[in-house]
Specification:
mainly alpha, 65% helix
Amino acid sequence: MTRDEALALLKSHLKNKNLIKHCLAVEACMRALAARLGHDPEPWGLAGILHDLDYEVTDKSPELHTTETVKVLRAKGIDESIVHAVQAHAGKAPCESPMDWAIYSVDPLTGLIISATLMHPEKKLKAVDLDFLKRRYKEKSFARGARREEIEESRNLGLELDEFLSIAIAAMQGIDTELGL
């Protein structure tokens, strides 16, 4: 599946523009992490863009999240490593590969970065730097839904937290126009 096909599939399943932007943010971070870690960015990017494909149909039943996505991806012949990463991001499969750990850790981080951007005086993603993000990260009451313990699992990628955060910030800044930030 190409990136364009994945984006079309995403848009056919999700109508909420913020959810689509979230998937684009996760994709950008996954591609950047793959490149940094010496992996092929294509499958990592596909896992990122497609990870919440069924979110709108399972949002009232979170225990079902990823079940529809898995069916769609398998029907389309998507590589099982991508399917597994999609399941792992939601705790529906154990994190076993670097791709699994990356998506598990990046998913909540993108929300933290977006929240930090909206709180920044400039309200622009390009204005968010590591220092600003780390200050928000340390505030327990800030963006509570961005589970810090999951973000910190990035250590399973062999990355220090600062480097992980920096990679994600830069990746999202690279698509700031698409994200509307």
